[in-house]
Structures are given as structure tokens and as C-alpha cells.
Automatic annotation (TrEMBL):
Protein name, as recorded: Zinc finger MYM-type protein 1-like
Annotated PANTHER family: GENERAL TRANSCRIPTION FACTOR 2-RELATED ZINC FINGER PROTEIN, ZINC FINGER, MYM DOMAIN CONTAINING 1
Pfam families in UniProt: DUF4371
Cross-referenced SUPFAM superfamilies: Ribonuclease H-like
Top-level taxon of the source organism: Eukaryota
Limits of the DUF4371 domain: 5-138
Amino acid composition bias (Polar residues), ranges on this chain: 223-242
Region of interest (Disordered), ranges: 215-242
């Protein structure tokens, strides 16, 4: 974090960490996280000032991170005081589950913390999963009960995904490819032995590519991952599975 800030200013970058006392370099993970939280909070408060008293929409999606924890992202969409349509990434929240009631509470907590009234909510953008789009107990329905003008729009990217999946499934060669790919993922996923062998092969291949210069090296790079299942409702999941 400190070195990154140094790269933004040549005068500071040339001496960063050189003259700092050994007991006050502020480079420990705990301090770094605290600094990031302070900066993130400042950014969110600036966004809140941008929104002002304007009506706004929320764009929400959730996904598992690398540690298999559910994370929910919240984006605000509004017209600023200059009449410009603006989108701002506002918050990412860890959620214990993805039920509509849990997501509703977490979103409401974030809005309340920054004094954003749900009465000013004029739109909701989610994917088409039942917990989000359900007309009776989905997330969009829960917000509509509080604010009847918070109209729900099915995410265009996910709608495009559904259209592409539907169209490509009519092409026999494409359908056969993803059918076989899905079978491979299921077979390897149900056998710990095959899963371990896959990781061993991946490690050998990554080492070969690094040695030959086909891959760069660096912290957090070239990690061994798991196979991904393709799904008609998950944006880019077919690309990820290949």
C-alpha cells in the first residue's frame, strides 16, 4: 500500500520506507487493512454526498470469493446535480447465505448506515435467479413492498447470457462440446482422487509455462484452481468453464 502510493509521486517514491523508523513503517497486514478501510469509508461518504437527495437505483449481485464465502456487491445508479447519469461501486458485503430476506437486510443496513432512504429507491437491477427476481418472496418483491416505485429490471448482461445459451444450444457441435465438458467436471468433482491428480497435472503445466516464459510470475499469480461448471444464469460461466 505504501509503495503503491509512492508510485503516484516521484519525489516520495524515491525515498519511500527508507527514512521511516523500523517500528513505524505501517506495513503490517493489520495496519494496511485499517488504512484501506479508512480510505474506502471516505470514498463511500464522497459518493453519498454526490447522491444527495436524488432518487437512485441499486444494482446488486452476489458470488463466492476464493475462500468460498458469499460476497454481495452493491452499485448505486443516480443522476447527479449536474444532470449526469452516474454509477458508483458503493459496497461489498459478506453474507451468510443468499436468501432474499438476508440480502434485503444487508442492503438495507448499508443504505441506513449512509442515510440513504429506501423511499428514494426507484429501480432494482439483479440477475434472474428466483431469490432475486421472485415476484412473491424475491429480493425485488421485498423492496417493492416498501417502495412501490422501485421497479425491477432483469440484468441485461444475464439476459444476453440466456439468449446466447439458447441460441448456441441449437448448434449441435457447441451443444456436444459443453455437454461433454459438463460430464468431465462432474466426474472429476465427485472423486477426490481424480481431483488431486488434476491439481498435480495443473502444477506441472504451470511450472512448464513459467519456465518457458508463457506465464508471468508474481505474488498471487499462477494459483491452482478448480473446474467451473457452466450455468445458464451465471454470466460468463461457459467461458470460465473452458
Amino acid at each position: 500500500m505504501v509503495r503503491f502510493c509512492g508510485r503516484l509521486n516521484d519525489n516520495i517514491g524515491g525515498i519511500v520506507l527508507e527514512k521511516a523508523p523500523k517500528n513505524a513503517k505501517y506495513t503490517s497486514p493489520t495496519i494496511q487493512k485499517e488504512v484501506l478501510h479508512i480510505l474506502a469509508d471516505r470514498v463511500r461518504r464522497t459518493i453519498r454526498e454526490e447522491v444527495g437527495d436524488a432518487k437512485f437505483c441499486i444494482l446488486v449481485d452476489e458470488a463466492q470469493d476464493a475462500s468460498n464465502k458469499e460476497q454481495m456487491s452493491i452499485i448505486l445508479r443516480f443522476v447527479d446535480r449536474f444532470g449526469i447519469l452516474t454509477e458508483r461501486f458503493f459496497e461489498i458485503v459478506q453474507v451468510p447465505n443468499t436468501t432474499a430476506s438476508t440480502l434485503k437486510k444487508k442492503i438495507s443496513d448499508v443504505l441506513s448506515r449512509f442515510n440513504l432512504s429506501s423511499a428514494n429507491l426507484r429501480g432494482q437491477g439483479y440477475d434472474g435467479a428466483s431469490n432475486m427476481s421472485g415476484g412473491c418472496n424475491g429480493l425485488q418483491a421485498l423492496f417493492l413492498k416498501e417502495c412501490p416505485y422501485a421497479y425491477y429490471i432483469h440484468c441485461f448482461a444475464h439476459r444476453l447470457q440466456l439468449a446466447l445459451v439458447g441460441a448456441s444450444s441449437k448448434e449441435v457441435s457447441v451443444w456436444l462440446f459443453f455437454s461433454k465438458l459438463s460430464t468431465i467436471v462432474n466426474l472429476i468433482g465427485c472423486s477426490p482422487k481424480w481431483h488431486t491428480e488434476l491439481h498435480s497435472v495443473q502444477a506441472i503445466e504451470i511450472a512448464r509455462m513459467v519456465t518457458s516464459g508463457e506465464r508471468d510470475t508474481g505474488r498471487g499469480m499462477n494459483q491452482i484452481g478448480n473446474l467451473h461448471r457452466s450455468g445458464s444464469t451465471r454470466w460468463s460461466s461457459h467461458f470460465d468453464s473452458t
